[in-house]
Amino acid sequence: MRSVFVFPRLDQLGTVAVLDALSPGQNAPWLVEDVLYCWLETEDGILYPGWEQEADKRLIPAIGHRPDWAIEIEVSGRVDGTEQLRRLVLTLLEHGGAVLDDYSDHAWTAGEIRSHARYEGLTFFDFRGSYNRLI
Which branch of life, at top level (predicted)? Predict the structure, then answer.
């Protein structure tokens, strides 16, 4: 599984309502577009343990504080999932916020995702570009 953590500016109840609408009758996890598994993660759960301090250095400037919750989205390895993930993340970031992916050291905003911006040569959720760097 490949994953991202979305830190929406929309409050937690509003975000849960969005996910409920996209995945009626399901939660923990929400299954969106048959390939995205979404969980609400909190600071007192598994949100930050094991995160490098670099994650805070990226996240806090992008959002202005260290959030106490996020939506974790896992993408099945059996599918590409890029377009489904982009749609969901842009929906969750409609009111602002940022997202961290597994491939870059950058907190991505909706504007950067929409414009296919690059950070150190990678776009958002650029698992192909990341893989090509390794070979």
Answer: Bacteria
